[in-house]
Design brief:
The chain is globular, with a radius of gyration of 19 Å. A seven-stranded antiparallel β-sheet has the order 3-2-10-9-8-7-6. The chain is built from nine helices and eleven strands. A hairpin with a 4-residue loop joins strand 4 and strand 5. The relative contact order is 0.17.
Length: 248
């Protein structure tokens, strides 16, 4: 009577690509000509996305394009860097990974401690609401960034925020590593719905089967995708993880 389905790769194609990004109060298309490696914040965003990343790119000579090995969301960040002329493998060869705090589904963050040219840096990426809590920002800036990334989520984009800080020594705990960070910006990653999903949901509905989508994405992203595929009708509920945890 119920289908509980994942979103990414089941209802969507799992073809993640960065389409938009936000830096220093400005929204850019991922193909914007103003975004060059000489743009310091953009360069910092790309570097963070490459170093705080466990995916890799493999060039397929028969297709003439790169395939992603590993998580496709992480792969989207590597493809953006590669498109802009940053050789991802070279970036990783220019430094040493001292510590990694793996992606935590509760914290919704991943962090690495990196050393390059005798400078230790902490690079972090994750859900924007989590990253914002870990950054040194005044309330007005925080609210402004929050309203910007919510607009991305309303378009059905998966939003990944990035932050960093330079340190003198390797932090002893995750908490120490993931506090007082400097906010860099965020990217919006598009993952189009599968063409056949709309019909499959309708057939299930006609058979009296209820379909529920379960996703780690922001509720606004989930709402946008759910509406596109005909899963969400008017006045239907979305329950977040924190709301679910409070249920009896």
């Amino acid at each position: 009577t119920v289908i509980a389905t994942d979103k990414t790769g089941t209802l969507t194609k799992n073809e993640m690509r960065v389409t938009k990004l936000w830096l220093e109060g400005i929204n850019y298309s991922s193909h914007d000509k103003n975004l060059q490696l000489s743009h310091s914040s953009f360069s910092k965003l790309l570097t963070t996305g490459v170093i705080c990343n466990n995916a890799s790119l493999v060039y397929k000579h028969d297709h003439g394009k790169y395939d992603i090995l590993g998580d496709t969301t992480e792969g989207a960040l590597l493809l953006l860097a590669q498109d802009r002329g940053l050789v991802t493998e070279q970036v990783k060869q220019n430094g040493t990974l001292l510590e990694e705090f793996a992606f935590d589904p509760t914290l919704k963050m991943m962090t690495v401690v990196w050393e390059s040219h005798k400078q230790k840096t902490i690079y972090t990426k994750g859900a924007p609401e989590s990253i914002l809590k870990s950054c040194t920002l005044d309330e007005q800036s925080r609210q402004s960034i929050e309203s910007e990334f919510r607009e991305y989520a309303k378009e059905g984009l998966r939003v990944i925020a990035l932050a960093y800080k330079n340190v003198d020594r390797t932090p002893k705990t995750r908490h120490e590593a993931e506090r007082d960070l400097t906010f860099i910006g965020f990217v919006g990653i598009a993952d189009p719905p599968r063409e056949e999903v709309k019909d499959a949901i309708r057939v299930a509905e006609l058979a009296g089967i209820r379909t529920i989508m379960i996703t780690g994405d922001n509720e606004l992203t989930a709402n946008a995708i759910g509406t596109k595929i005909g899963l969400i009708k008017q006045n239907e509920e979305i329950i977040t993880g924190s709301q679910f945890a409070k249920l009896s």
